[in-house]
Structures are given as structure tokens and as C-alpha cells.
Specification:
The chain has helices at 2-23, 33-36, 44-52, 55-58, 90-96, 105-109, 197-215, 219-227, 229-232, 245-251, 254-259, 273-277, 346-352, 355-361, and strands at residues 72-77, 98-100, 115-118, 125-131, 143-146, 149-158, 162-168, 238-243, 265-267, 284-286, 293-298, 309-310, 313-322, 326-331. By secondary structure, the protein is of the alpha+beta class. It folds into two domains: 31-168, FAS1 domain, CATH 2.30.180; 197-361, Roll (FAS1 domain), CATH 2.30.180. Residues 345-368 are annotated as: Disordered.
Length: 368
């Protein structure tokens, strides 16, 4: 009788602890007790991953030491994604991308920005972030990122014991400091200020933005932001106009863009695409370069034949990266330095599309 009572008491205590854990935002909803006590067959993970098309990860599940008694969430990288890390150990990589517990996309979307969750790899944590796509329906349309890599196929598999999310992007092994705020070296950043909550939020958002830029082919912009980190770290928010790597190398403007980065950043303002499109012609926008400003030379709403232009340059892609503090828009060429009074001539340029207009757009600044 005492053994039965002990078993009943154990089940009651476990249920109470599980209820408390579910109330904490960092814990996913607990599965039923029958599932917790269930032992998975060793081939379960291999079968699931293989069926879903993750052949490389499926082949290393035996060596990944995933738990056979704990509900598990796996962020599965495609076979092509694994090529981005040729030196990675696949068993360790699978272990680092697997979490104890069931984390659906809905639950991940509602986590605080920069939430760290411990993986099956000892002392290794994944960082969960999300970006706002549509401000009017922010939660339901948020893209979720795991260590800067987007979940492209959320809730691909969920049988109540195992959840699999498909991810695609650049991946690497987790840092030994991944469960804390990673230390900033002098090569990447200056010495950090005291670790206040506000600083940690800004730092994590800056890291997230740079990771997404690297993934999208804007590595030089990400590098330039690291170099300029002392100036950028004091901003409450910012709008960045970025040039992709291919355009920079094609035009030989890499060094010029890095040195002129501050001219492509609007400090302490979030100017999303919808906001920029609503600005009238000749609107002046301040930049981080002292005395230099951007100008709306063609207002939005003109259609494909007369697209919106800033300093005579068309925006290639609005809201490339967006979170609550940083928004990045893509350009095909850097902004030329123009005096804001020259914006009055842009209406004629937009209509004629003449060679003279193109020369005007690329003319050197007349400002001192």
C-alpha cells in the first residue's frame, strides 16, 4: 500500500510542478503525463526526419544522444543548408538544434524577443527572435528566427511527442556563452557598458539585424554596422538604407559605402516602407552624418514608371529587415550627396527618364 501511495504522491507532485512551469512564459505547455512517461523507440527521430526529407540529419540521430523519454522540438536544417557549415559535426549540430519540450510556432511567436532556451547540448542555448511584418496584425504575421535563421516551414510535424520546424539559412555551432549574453570582443564591438535591460535589448536586436543581413546577402553592411557600433549603440532606434554585396562589388563601391554608412542611417526614427511612401516630395530626412540630409525627390504613388526616389535613388526593397528598433531598406546604389533644393527638379526627371537626369542623380554634392 505504501508503494502505491508513494507513486500517487509522485504523480501529484509532478502534476503540480508541470502546472507551475506552464504558467511561466519560458516553458511550453506540458504534455500529458502518459506522454512524459512514454519511451520513444530509438528509430523514431530517424524515421520522422527521413520522411520529412531531412536525410543528412536522419542519418546521425543515433549519435546525437537525443532523449528517448522527453517530448522534443527539433529545428531541422535542410540538406542544402548544412552545406553552409562544412566543418560542423552533424550529430552535435542536431543536438544543438533540439529542445526538450514542445514548442509550436504559436508559442515561439509569443516569447519575449531574445529568449534563450537550453538545448540537449550541455550549456548551449538557442536564441528566439521575431520580426514584425504587419503592424496591424503583429503577432499573427511575425516571422520567427532561431539564432538568426528563419523558420521557413513551421510546425512541419507534430504528433504530440515530437515537433519539427524546418529552417533554412547560414548555421554554425553554438557558442559556449550562448546561454548568456555573448561577450563582445574588441574586434567586433567596443567594451560593453553595464548590462542594463535596455542595453541587452538593443544589443540583441543589433545582433539579430546583422545576422539577417548576412543571410540575405548584405554582409558588408553588417560588417560596417559592427565597425560603427560605438555610434550606433547609443541610438534608441534607426532606419538603415543598405546595399547588397553583389551591387557593391559590381560597382567597386564597397569601401565608399562603409565610410559613408552614416549618410545612409536615419537616427532615432523607424521609417517603414508605408511611412516613406506617404512622405511628400522635397521632404528632408536627417542622417547621422553631420550637416547631411536625405531628400524625397519623387514621392510615392507614381506607379512603376515613376517609383519613389530618395536622392534620385529608387528603393529596391522596402522593410528588408524589421524589428521594434531597426528597419532596413535595400538600395541598388548608394545615395549621392545632393542639396535639398535640387529636389524641385525631380518631377521633370521622373517623367523624362533622360540621360541628363541619371547624370544629375550621380553628380557629386555641391554642399560644403
Amino acid at each position: 500500500m505504501s508503494a502505491a501511495m508513494n507513486l500517487l504522491l509522485l504523480l501529484l507532485v509532478t502534476a503540480i510542478l508541470a502546472t507551475k512551469a506552464s504558467a511561466h512564459p519560458l516553458f511550453p505547455p506540458p504534455p500529458p503525463q502518459s506522454q512524459i512517461l512514454h519511451t520513444f523507440p530509438p528509430s523514431l527521430f530517424a524515421t520522422i526526419l527521413s520522411t520529412l526529407g531531412f536525410q543528412e540529419l536522419s542519418s546521425v540521430t543515433t549519435n546525437a544522444n537525443l532523449s528517448l523519454i522527453t517530448p522534443t522540438t527539433i529545428f531541422a536544417a535542410t540538406d542544402s543548408t548544412l552545406l553552409t557549415c562544412p566543418s560542423c559535426s552533424l550529430p552535435l549540430l542536431l543536438q544543438e538544434h533540439s529542445l526538450p519540450g514542445l514548442y509550436t510556432l504559436h508559442f515561439l511567436r509569443n516569447l519575449a524577443f531574445g529568449t534563450k532556451i537550453e538545448t540537449f547540448a550541455p550549456d548551449r542555448c538557442l536564441t528566439i527572435t521575431a520580426s514584425h511584418i504587419n503592424p496591424s496584425d503583429a503577432v499573427a504575421t511575425r516571422k520567427v528566427f532561431v539564432n538568426g535563421v528563419e523558420i521557413t516551414k513551421p510546425d512541419l510535424f507534430n504528433n504530440g511527442l515530437v515537433i519539427v520546424h524546418g529552417i533554412q539559412g547560414f548555421i554554425s555551432h553554438l557558442s559556449p556563452a550562448s546561454c548568456t549574453v555573448e561577450k563582445m570582443t574588441t574586434l567586433a564591438y567596443p567594451d560593453p557598458p553595464p548590462p542594463t535591460a535596455a542595453f541587452l535589448i538593443k544589443h540583441s536586436m543589433m545582433k539579430e539585424t546583422m545576422a539577417q543581413l548576412r543571410f540575405r546577402g548584405f554582409s558588408l553592411v553588417a560588417l560596417a554596422m559592427r565597425i560603427k557600433y560605438p555610434e550606433l549603440s547609443d541610438l534608441k532606434s534607426m532606419t538603415v538604407f543598405a546595399i547588397d554585396d553583389a551591387s557593391i562589388f559590381a560597382g567597386g563601391e564597397g569601401h565608399a559605402y562603409v565610410t559613408d554608412l552614416m549618410y545612409h542611417i536615419v537616427p532615432n526614427r523607424i521609417l517603414q516602407g508605408s511611412h516613406l511612401m506617404g512622405l511628400p516630395s522635397e521632404t528632408v530626412i536627417p542622417t547621422m552624418e553631420r550637416g547631411q540630409k536625405l531628400v524625397i525627390t519623387t514621392a510615392g504613388g507614381g506607379g512603376p514608371l515613376a517609383p519613389m526616389r530618395i536622392n534620385y535613388v529608387k528603393i529596391k526593397n522596402f522593410d528588408l529587415v524589421s524589428n521594434t528598433r531597426i528597419v532596413v531598406h535595400a538600395l541598388s546604389t548608394p545615395f549621392p550627396h545632393v542639396h535639398h533644393r535640387t529636389a524641385k527638379n525631380e518631377g521633370t526627371c521622373a517623367q523624362s527618364q533622360s540621360e541628363a537626369c541619371e547624370n544629375n542623380a550621380n553628380a557629386p554634392s555641391t554642399e560644403s
